[in-house]
Amino acid sequence: MLKNRIIPCLDVKNGRVVKGINFVDLQDAGDPVEQAKIYSDGGADEICFLDITASNENRDTIYDVVEKTSKKCFVPLTVGGGVRSVDDINKLLNCGADKVSINTAAVQNSEVVVESSKKFGSQCIVVAIDAKKNDDKWEIFTHGGRNNTGIDAIEFASKMESSGAGELLVTSMDRDGTQVGYDIDLMSKISSKVNIPVIASGGVGNLDHLVDGIKLGNASAVLAASIFHYGKHSVKEAKEYLDSKGIPVRI
Amino acid sequence: MNVTIVDYNSGNISSVINSFKEVARDKVNIEVTSELKKIKSSDKVVLPGQGSFKSCVDALNNINGLVDTLNEFVISNKKPLLGICVGLQMFADIGYEETETKGLGWISGKVCKIDNQNGKYKLPHIGWNQINILKDSKIFKDIDNNAHMYFVHSYEFVPEDKNLISATTDYSSNIVCSVEKDNIFGTQFHPEKSDKTGLKIIDNFINL
């Protein structure tokens, strides 16, 4: 039976790990290579690096981080943040990333998704959807959550599936950093709309939130940062908890 | 000993390289090349593959003499080869991804889309799944039955001779995830991304 995945996410800025509350107020918290190794040794099913302010800054430091990490971690490594072109994707894959997540560039020009999935295969193309609730719909935000595009998130998810995305990483901007749980409504709506795996992100504060993301949000994988990062819970604890709730996990 | 990872522009092979180098350390020389001479003189060959069946077959054919060299290595000289993901799928006679494409024909069979029961199961089949070991394969030495491996694929290789299937995995159906025919080994899952158990499979192949 296919297992639900737990993915710790490391937000990286200038080659160092940080985690923001609602994408601002950053705190420095460690070396990404060592962190990734601790997670993979602890049973993480995948590791995710998000180069958070990369859309606006020089981002060459991430290549070095990816290269070093991929020599130490033998579970899949996803890298996102500031990925604009097929060329950027190529560079990250060559450094050792297994998947690349595309956010702003996919919204601005879906051809990037079409072209890159043809060139490298859908298996390594993840489209990151940052969405915020506005009345009865969710709208897509880009540039690390700073720009509202007004695009409907559910329709966009469907468009990305047909453009060749292999997975969708769905983040609720309302919940990110709040620790009150995933936006279950958003996750389940997108998950039932598309036939590719959905990774739930944004808002995890305790282990029950992970259970909800899978059971209620129908996510294939759950991504979290703070609860693992500050030692509140280990990945192993999270897996044992999910297992006790009847969710299939790799232990 | 020389183990060659065939670099034929089949997409991202850095993880395959990293994992083989991690396992080989200083004991074994790992080459990454498409040079025919080096392939011919190596003791073992790894054939990775990402993207579509067609794109991988096209990429193999684009390198002059590569298919002949691989045929000679595997069929005439009977030296060990490990195919990973689409590298395994290409053992087949024919594949149906994008369009009907001829494979290497080393193991009779077809590569078809996984039957996901009309959308009941998501595709690609991405993530960790357990393998049911069906026969004693040399690359499964010290690997537990039901061990977890990492998968990413939408197509599966179905060989005609079911006795060549060394492991399956349970998804929408029992999917073939490993085959072995004499000196030819293949895994649909990614040992290079399957943590310590995956590295053990790589170690087993290197030590054949």
What are the low-pLDDT stretches of chain A, counting only 5+ consecutive residues below 50?
Answer: 20-28
Radius of gyration of chain A: 16 Å
The Cα radius of gyration of chain B reads: 16 Å
Q: Indicate the CATH class of chain B.
A: Alpha Beta
- Count the E strands of chain A: 11
The helix count of chain A comes to 10
CATH superfamily of chain A: Aldolase class I
Question: What's the number of structural domains of chain A?
Answer: 1
CATH architecture descriptor name of chain A? Alpha-Beta Barrel
Category from helices, strands and their pairing of chain A: alpha/beta
Distance between the amino and carboxyl termini of chain B: 11 Å
Number of structural units classed as domains of chain B? 1
Strand order of the largest sheet of chain A: 1-3-4-5-6-9-10-11
Helical segment tally of chain B?
Answer: 6
Across the major sheet of chain B, the strand order is 2-1-3-4-13-12-11-8-9
Short structural description:
The complex is a heterodimer of chains A (251) and B (208). Chain A has 251 residues and is an alpha/beta fold.
Explained architecture:
- The complex is a heterodimer of chains A (251) and B (208).
- Chain A is an alpha/beta fold and 251 residues long.
- Chain A is built from ten helices and eleven strands.
- Chain A has a single domain, classed as TIM Barrel, CATH 3.20.20.70.
- Chain B has 208 residues and is of the alpha/beta class.
- Helices cover 25% and strands 31% of the residues of chain B.
- A nine-stranded mixed sheet of chain B has the order 2-1-3-4-13-12-11-8-9.
- In chain B, helix 1 packs across helix 6.
- Chain B is globular.
- At the A-B interface, helix 3 of A face helix 1, strand 8, strand 9 and helix 6 of B.
